[in-house]
Amino acid sequence: MKRPFAASVWREGNWYVSQCLEVDVASQGETEEEALSNLKEALELHFEPPQATRPPRVRLIEVEVGAA
């Protein structure tokens, strides 16, 4: 099944960054076309069925916010 996704592409230094606007997935490439192609591959991997592996370890971190 194919499904369309909206993507945003912008330049950061020597790289183009591509980001899916509906799913928290991003990629990069040396050209806009490469960045979009890499994003397509990343999305395909994101939606692959999960395989039996050990679940990731969740950790808490503390960050100073609003410090003057």
Descriptors:
single chain, 68 residues, alpha+beta, 3-stranded antiparallel sheet, 1 helix, 3 strands, 24% strand
Descriptive notes:
A hairpin with a 5-residue loop joins strand 2 (15-20) and strand 3. The chain has a domain at 7-46. It has 68 residues and is an alpha+beta fold. 22% of the residues lie in helices and 24% in strands. The protein has one helix and three strands; from the N terminus they run E-E-E-H. It has a three-stranded antiparallel beta sheet with strand order 1-2-3, covered by helices on one side. It starts with 6 loop residues before the first strand and ends in a 22-residue tail after the last helix.
Would you identify the regions where 5 or more consecutive residues have pLDDT less than 50?
Answer: none
Our count of helices gives 1
Number of strands: 3
Radius of gyration: 16 Å
Shape: flat
State the separation between the terminal residues, measured CA to CA. Answer: 51 Å
> How would you state the average pLDDT, rounded?
93
- Binned, the helix content reads 10-25%
How much of the sequence lies in strands comes to: 15-25%
Main beta-sheet annotation = 3 strands, antiparallel
Spatial sequence of strands, sheet with the most strands = 1-2-3
Give the SSE map:
Blueprint: E1 7-12, E2 15-20, E3 26-29, H1 32-46
Antiparallel strand pairs: 1-2, 2-3
